[in-house]
Amino acid sequence: MARTTPRRWRDIATDLLQRIEAGDLSPGDGSSGRRRLPPEKELESYYGASRNTVRDALSWLQQQGFVVSEQGKGTFVVHRPNIVHVTLSAAELGLAPGNRSGQWYNRDAFIPASREVTVSPVKVEVQEGTKVIARYLQTNPGSEFVSRHQELFLDERPWALQTSFYPLSFATEGASRLLYPRDIPEGAVAYLGETLGYSEVGFHDEIRARIPDENEKRFFNLGDSAADVVFETVRTAYSPDGKAFRLTVTVWPADRTRLHYNNGKVPDDVLRTPGLGPSDHAPRESPPADDAGSG
Fold first, then answer.
1. What would the pLDDT profile of 91-108 be if each residue is shown by its tens digit?
2. Longest distance between any two alpha carbons in the chain, whole Å
3. Which of 275, 108, 245, 281 is nearest to 171 (CA)?
4. Minimal CB count within 10 Å: which of 59, 188, 191, 216?
5. Which residues contact 239 (CB under 8 A, 6 or more apart)?
6. Which domains does the chain have, with CATH numbers?
């Protein structure tokens, strides 16, 4: 029996997308377990629409990267990785990595402790900064910077690309470890405090969505559809005198990342498990004795 629904292809595409995101499709490709959309004839009957209208809806879903059609087999839902919720406002200013048993991949972000974060070896370069980098770090165009780049993995899967920039003068004036292709166990902020007297009293974040470059497509296994975009977060850290002394650019795949911020008094359950609404958290009669919070 055909369901009474709008017949326009966009309405059909929207409804199918909602069913995809809700998991309202059964595996239909044998052992692979891939989720297959109903055949076109069945969709025509279900939506009371013409073949061309259904095909237009499927074509749009394919262009957006949600499904893929295979000759003689059908149309299948494209697998998307599980969502990772990242809280960017989680750390106390100046907190070094490693202080909370692996909960922090660095001092800038918090993820659940059950996830394992690993990083690639540090790649260090000395380079002439672009006008954009010079603007963020309040230096003259053409100034030289130290860049420290790493690939980040979550549960052994590609997760983020991160590059931090520091004025080259930091290395020549005493913070020489910035030039070494090794981790700084206490964290770069703490190290700069020890060597040059810098302390971080605040930061400014800028977030944008953009098309990935070829290296990002390779690392995150992204395609060319409109759904394959990345978030880029640009964090500028400031010292007490208002001087910018650290610029960190992190690139995240948008299809598997949700970025969160906290401000003010936020329930501890929400701090620990961002992405769940208050009604999704189990009620608690009383807070734990060591309820210190994270944000």
1. 555 443 333 333 334 445
2. 77
3. 245
4. 59
5. 198, 199, 200, 201, 245
6. 9-77 (1.10.10.10), 84-274 (3.40.1410.10)
